[in-house]
Amino acid sequence: MHFGGVKAFADGSLGSNSALFYEAYDNDPHNYGLQVTDMIWLQNATMHADKCRLQVAIHAIGDKANDMVLDMYSTVASYNGLRDRRFKIEHCQHLVPESPKRFGKQLVIASVQPDHLLDDAEPAEKKLGIVRAQSGSYLFKSLFDSNATVAFGSDWPVADINPLGAIRTAIHRVPPGWENAWIPSERTTLDEAMKASTISAAYAAFLDKDLGSLSKAKYADFVVLPANSWDELLENLPDTVLATYVNGNQVYP
């Protein structure tokens, strides 16, 4: 049982050169980013929140910030003992190559927002350099392959709330004006993207017993898409739905 959740911040953002990295920014060589919360305070607060059965989610964008939070989560879980706590890291946008495996091993949920990569592809390569950006940015496929629970979201109102757009972005990874995918090796399958948007998103919110799949005893919340097969859906993912049902009742159109 859990009793709600709390959120904290480990670093800033890529856009403001305040996401925390191991290496300095290429366009700001004396800047490694900003740690916005003292880690001793954050660990103590997380320890206390976890003891109170609150789910903890922490914003981390840079590769160093993500590792610091993973280290801290490991310490808290070891100290407080095994249970179904579902720690989350929000964004997980830049990781060192070894970090995706840690999400899977530690059972930390990667709560990511695919549409952010549409705006970040060009700035990331300018701010981090092409090699570093392409080896560590938005590692969705690596997270899936490491058996991590990946939950898709929108970060609305910062990004579009439409989940169909996020699914398309995760599958294709083609920023506006580009002809090719950004880091094509990190493209997800349709099945992975759909799972991240449904059952995994529900699991991340402790709602998987009620939502996330069409199953007995769950709410019948679902949409009808304009496609006759998964192959057709993959070929031309729509922007809109034909119908929406909430608890078995049609609410749109």
From TrEMBL:
It comes from Zingiber officinale. Pfam families: Amidohydro_3. Residues 3-252 form the Amidohydrolase domain. This is Amidohydrolase 3 domain-containing protein.
